[in-house]
Amino acid sequence: MEEIVTLHELLNGYSNIQRRSLIIDRGEFLIRQGEVESHIYYIHSGAIHAFYVSDHEEHTIRFGYKGSLITSIPSFYNGQPSELFLQAIRKTEITAYSR
Q1: CATH fold label, 7-98
Q2: Are 41 and 71 in contact (CB under 8 A)?
Q3: 15: left (phi over 0), alpha (psi -120 to 50) or beta
Q4: Distance (Å, rounded) from C-alpha 25 to C-alpha 31?
Q5: pTM summary value
Q6: How far apart are CA 6 and CA 17, in angstroms?
Q7: Where are the domains of the chain?
Q8: Sign of dihedral through CA atoms 10, 12, 14, 19?
Q9: pLDDT, tens only, 2-19
Q10: What contacts 31, CB < 8 A, 6 or more positions away?
Q11: How far apart are CA 37 and CA 88, in angstroms?
Q12: Which segments of the chain are extended strands (E)?
């Protein structure tokens, strides 16, 4: 039978990837619009709201829940300022993987 390996498990297998465990309180931001993202986050528990603000209106892109990865992809890969906010909507335990 084929073994299913999660991306989180795969990332943990690389010793050269920097990682740290964090607990983020409700309302706390992982990144704000305009900042450069340098992490991918694996969510162990809780929830993260990914959104942007345009013309004073909040637009939801997605929610990240237990077992998912979340980041501002263009910012992480290209080093450009993030268009997104990533905000905890409840107390959230994550692993932050640095590039």
Answers
A1: Jelly Rolls (2.60.120)
A2: yes
A3: alpha
A4: 14
A5: 0.82
A6: 16
A7: 7-98
A8: positive
A9: 555 566 566 666 556 788
A10: 37, 72, 75, 82, 84, 85, 86
A11: 16
A12: 19-24, 29-31, 39-45, 47-54, 57-65, 69-70, 85-88, 92-98
